[in-house]
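Q: what sequence does this backbone want?
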């Protein structure tokens, strides 16, 4: 496999890992009242994910929100963009 192919595969794996992690966070907060759940998911991601993680997550899903659960779609606009690292 070429170096570019490895980079693409690594990026796809990273994006899938972030989606899985976000899904676990959403699973936890789905027991919260509906009005609080999306804000709580976004707050957790904003507090505990690095800027790079948030940036990669948003870049991957802002134009493909249908790939996320309904709760993550609601949280997406509340996630702060990353500034790297």
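A:
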């Amino acid at each position: 496999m070429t170096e570019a192919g490895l980079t693409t595969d690594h990026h796809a794996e990273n994006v899938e890992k972030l989606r899985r992690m976000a899904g676990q966070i959403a699973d936890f907060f789905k027991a919260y009242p509906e009005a609080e759940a999306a804000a709580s998911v976004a707050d957790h991601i904003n507090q505990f994910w690095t800027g790079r993680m948030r940036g990669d997550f948003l870049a991957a899903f802002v134009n493909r929100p249908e790939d996320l659960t309904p709760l993550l779609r609601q949280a997406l606009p509340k996630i702060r963009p990353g500034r790297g690292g």
